[in-house]
Amino acid sequence: MKNQEIAKIFHEIADYLEMEGVQFKPYAYQKAAFSLENLEKDIEEVYKKGREKAIEEIPGVGKSIAQKIIEYLKTGKIKYYLDYKKKYPVNIEELTSVEGLGPKMVRDLYGILKIKNLKDLEKAAREGKIRNLPNFGEKTEKNILQGIRFLKRTKGRFLLGDILPQVRKIEDNLKSLKEVEKINVCGSVRRMKETIGDVDFLVSVKESKKPAF
């Protein structure tokens, strides 16, 4: 199914948007990605049976995102996504897999040091080039090296049996918040994969004047 392919693209679009400091839209793409990951039906079949209207009925998918899904189903690519990849030719998934390294930091690392991947990142950190960047410092550089060593040691994956108790604990803690209306565990955990790279939660909250978290 192409559900997972499109979901992966949407997660990366969310990262690119966050790199640029865009508000709200990253969450919209993440929400759509989670919906596609958890959609039991093949997205191609959904489109064949109900066309654009059926795509827009998927939770978290509005008209703009629906059009991008249809574009991928018809052409195998999304121009909006490709434009971002051309603008930021970095392996965003690989770099953000390092603990503590978010999209905005990836943007700065690429903008100043032209770091595109994990190999570039490790080389720059070992040469002491990251510590002198604005908002980084020596501690951040050390943490990056530790994060890279951890990824190499574990290959970024955890056994489901080891991580599941912690997932359930986090899920219970979130459910205990009165602002939380609904919570779903998504991604690899929901699909009960043997190994887990990260844990995704999709949380719906009640309208409130105060933030839930």
Question: What does it look like?
Answer:
- This is DNA polymerase III.
- One of its GO terms (biological process) is DNA repair.
- With 213 residues, the chain is mostly helical.
- It folds into three domains: 3-87, Orthogonal Bundle (DNA polymerase, domain 1); 92-154, DNA polymerase, domain 1 (Orthogonal Bundle); 158-205, Beta Polymerase, domain 2.
- Helices cover 60% and strands 8% of the residues.
- It has helices at residues 3-19, 25-37, 43-56, 63-75, 79-87, 92-95, 103-113, 118-126, 137-154, 160-175, 187-190; strands spanning 158-159, 180-186, 195-196, 200-205.
- The protein has a two-stranded antiparallel ribbon with strand order 1-3.
- Helix 1 (3-19) crosses helix 7 (103-113), helix 3 (43-56) packs antiparallel against helix 4 (63-75) and helix 8 (118-126) crosses helix 9.
- The model has no long low-confidence stretch (mean pLDDT 88).
Strand content: 5-15%
Multimerization status: single chain
Number of E-type strands: 4
**Annotated CATH architecture of the largest domain:** Orthogonal Bundle
Order of helices and strands: HHHHHHHHHEHEHEE
Output the CATH topology of the largest domain.
DNA polymerase, domain 1
Uncertain parts: none
Helix fraction bin: 55-70%
- Major sheet size, sense and barrel closure: 2 strands, antiparallel
What radius of gyration results from the CA coordinates? 19 Å
**For the record, what CATH class of the largest domain applies?**
Mainly Alpha
Which outline best applies?
globular
